[in-house]
Amino acid sequence: MSFGRSSRHLVRRGVLTVLAAQVAAVASLMGADRLRRLLRGRKIPALESAQPVSHRINDGSVATTYTYGEVLFDDMLAAITGARKRILLETYIIKGDAMGRRFKQALIDAAERGVEVYVVYDQFANLVVRPSFLRFPAPVHVLRYPLISSWKIFGPRHLGRDHRKILVVDDEVAYVGGYNIGSAYATEWRDTHLRIEGPAVWDLDNAFVDFWNTHPKRTTDRLAQMPPAGWRPEIRAHRNVPRQLMYPIRGMYLEAIDRAHRSISITAAYFIPDRDILDAILEARLRGVTVRIIVPKVSNHVVTDWLSRGFYGRLLRAGVEIHRYTDHMVHAKTATIDGEWTTIGTANIDRLSLLGNYEINLEILDRGLAAGMEKVFADDCAKCEQLSLDEWMRRPVVARVYEAILKPLAPLL
């Protein structure tokens, strides 16, 4: 009995020691990151104002890619200003800064001229935003995805955040991608968004309407859906819906990577793949597929950076190219495979996005769009530092210690 109690005591001490080490590691990294940001200041990196590029898809839709936030926001605001019937806006973050105020005023103006305006935002993501800014006058219908969506807080149906970014105007034009709304995102972050016109707008419109109509806290009548757009395969929307335990975006990635025979180009703001996705990438390399991944050299979540580094060794030894974006934060969630298949959306390659949050990604089969995205990838690579296996193996011992301490946290993110 004494031996058993002693063993349990040792186990508890071991667990507490590991937890203490993880807390200390996270605290020190966050402190160092805060100091780095203060010393660096808020200087906006010099960027060329990348113009959007449009491609006509075989289903009759037109897809336009945006890689510079200021241009994207101007077009979104123009669409809101020109709205005649209905505006559906869903965003993870809307900052209470100059850009956020522009969007808020444009939505209010639209509602006052008779347009039906519906807004969804995530409460957790906007905790640092003044509550008064997030209040809209009565003509605007607002649904705040709550900090706690149910008393069953540990159930998988209720853990996910609403991480989607969707704008649909008049059921005719829709936007989706990685951009949140705020001034910093306009000029300081590298991200990717997509505008859709034509039949494929239905997918994004339907995603918003389903979310609104099934939410228990909505205060309006059910929203009407657009007429069905048919079953053309060129563009499909994949929606993670925790309420329904539905997570197809992960399956989309696994299937696409498994089909790759020539090239895989991934841009990931936070790259923490689970075992199946990691194995699929390594299997692709064994087949001779060229695999290139762009990640931020330093992201806005320093702990995530260190968790991502825990995969670099296996990837580099397998011949995967890792390019670290150096100019500023790259927040895009895109992939292009074999010059034919593309996904653009809101889901990161991590557990929170693929098995947790409400997310939406478009899957597009079109060589023209894929060629455009490959050019974007090449332009981004020019702003990256490619990490070599030799450089990785020569990293400091303290870096290896941090990686080992933080590695158990990877499944949580």
Topology:
Layout (H helix, E strand, L loop, with lengths): L1 H39 L12 E4 L5 E5 L2 H13 L4 E6 L6 H15 L3 E7 L17 E6 L20 E4 L3 E5 L5 H5 L1 E2 L2 E5 L3 H14 L20 E6 L7 H12 L3 E6 L6 H12 L3 E7 L5 H8 L2 H6 L3 E5 L3 E2 L2 E5 L3 E5 L5 H4 L4 E7 L1 H15 L2 E4 L1 H5 L3 H10 L7
Parallel strand pairs: 3-4, 4-5, 8-14, 11-12, 12-13
Antiparallel strand pairs: 1-2, 2-9, 3-6, 6-7, 7-9, 10-17, 11-15, 13-18, 15-16, 16-17
Folded structure, characterized:
The chain has 2 domains: 53-232, Endonuclease, Chain A, CATH 3.30.870.10; 244-412, Endonuclease, Chain A (2-Layer Sandwich), CATH 3.30.870.10. Helices cover 38% and strands 22% of the residues. The protein is an alpha/beta fold. Strands 1-2-9-7-6-3-4-5 form an 8-stranded mixed β-sheet, sandwiched between helices. 39% of the residues are buried. The chain has 13 helices and 18 strands. The protein starts with a helix and ends in a 7-residue tail after the last helix. It is globular and about 60 Å long.
